[in-house]
């Protein structure tokens, strides 16, 4: 099974024919599909659903921009393989067309359940063969239609950064898992596209006297660890990786983000990005972050998380003070000190 994407990749793309095609998707904010218990509504999830369905309607074009999510999905399946256990069923939340499904085989699981709120995106690759049986369910990630203690393993590949009620969704995931079931997820971290964020902010301040949120607000690893613990997961771990992609210019980057289904969907976004502002942002981006070969880098920070549903027979950390061996002896520094 072929895996891996170079951490620095030059995409041989042609220059953008039109600047206007790379503006953020326009639209009036619509009521969110967020859970009623959510204290904040940051994202317009109906707009996000429409954006993802729109790009998925052009199968071949949207497949060209799967490279980041496919790389992360392969990494996630490797983490699943590190667990010395096989899972009869794996549930993929916010699956998109099936990035995780491409890396699964019958030795890992006997069935994959894929869920997504965007139906066209969910069925985009339904005509492609898969090594494991797949069931597709259209549902909102904030309102999962699964029974308690019904799933062996749950995964989510780069979709949870668009969820308004992230704590509520994590609680639902823990409830759905069987005891000692595992959740393996990935999210874009707060430093994702920091180059694009700063370039757009500086350009808007220069040309328009202020800036609006053009890049989605994202969380950090400390917050994710806290959220996993609050949701009731045991043995939670979070680690951070970065993937850097090279683009000819800001226009190809913004175009690829659109075809990834990652266009702006913040509730209070401005509907349009002015042409002169985008031109200024392109210049600022290249000046601040441009590489010697004339390309620009775009950083995708990936937060990988693992959490386990509590179980009576689950491995637990030893009690504080119960150790019987001195750490200095283990490290071999020759010291002899009492434990207490």
Structure description:
With 340 residues, the chain is of the alpha/beta class. It has helices at 45-56, 59-63, 67-82, 119-122, 166-176, 194-208, 221-230, 250-259, 275-289, 327-331, and strands at 8-10, 87-93, 109-116, 134-138, 151-157, 177-188, 234-247, 296-308. Strands 1-7-8-6-5-2-3-4 form an eight-stranded mixed β-sheet, with helices on both faces. Helix 6 crosses helix 9. It is globular. The N and C termini lie far apart (51 Å). The model is unreliable at 1-38 (pLDDT under 50).
- How many DSSP H or I helices? 10
Q: What is the distance, rounded to the nearest whole angstrom, between the alpha carbons of the first and last residues?
A: 51 Å
The low-pLDDT segments are: 1-38
Question: What value does the average pLDDT take?
Answer: 85
Radius of gyration: 22 Å
Number of strands: 8
Main sheet specs: 8 strands, mixed
What is the overall shape? globular
Secondary-structure class: alpha/beta
As a percent range, the share of helical residues equals 25-40%
Strand portion, in percent? 15-25%
Order of strands in the sheet with most strands: 1-7-8-6-5-2-3-4
